[in-house]
Specification:
single chain; 104 residues; alpha+beta; Alpha-Beta Plaits; five-stranded antiparallel sheet; 5 strands; 39% helix
Amino acid sequence: MRNICLALVIMVTAISSVFAQVAAPGEIQIKVNGLVCDFCARNISKVFSKVKEVSNVDVDLSRKLVTLALAPGFVLEDEKIGKLIRDAGYQVVSINRGGAGAAP
């Protein structure tokens, strides 16, 4: 019984981590190389806060993940995201829109 409970906990944890990495509708998740400090997070936040299509920016340094919430009615192209991140001095690893991954 103990082994079954342990296996169940491991399965739930694994499934939770998979779903946690899927962007919600209207969100874009970007894996970025080079995000290592609070200054990096503030720099990326500042860059995207100036973009009219973006209503919110969240930077998770431990996962090297930038999550953008789009303003209602707006679209933000992968090319523009990649250019903004590269111009800020970082490298895009992947772009995920609502569960569909895209390369930069």
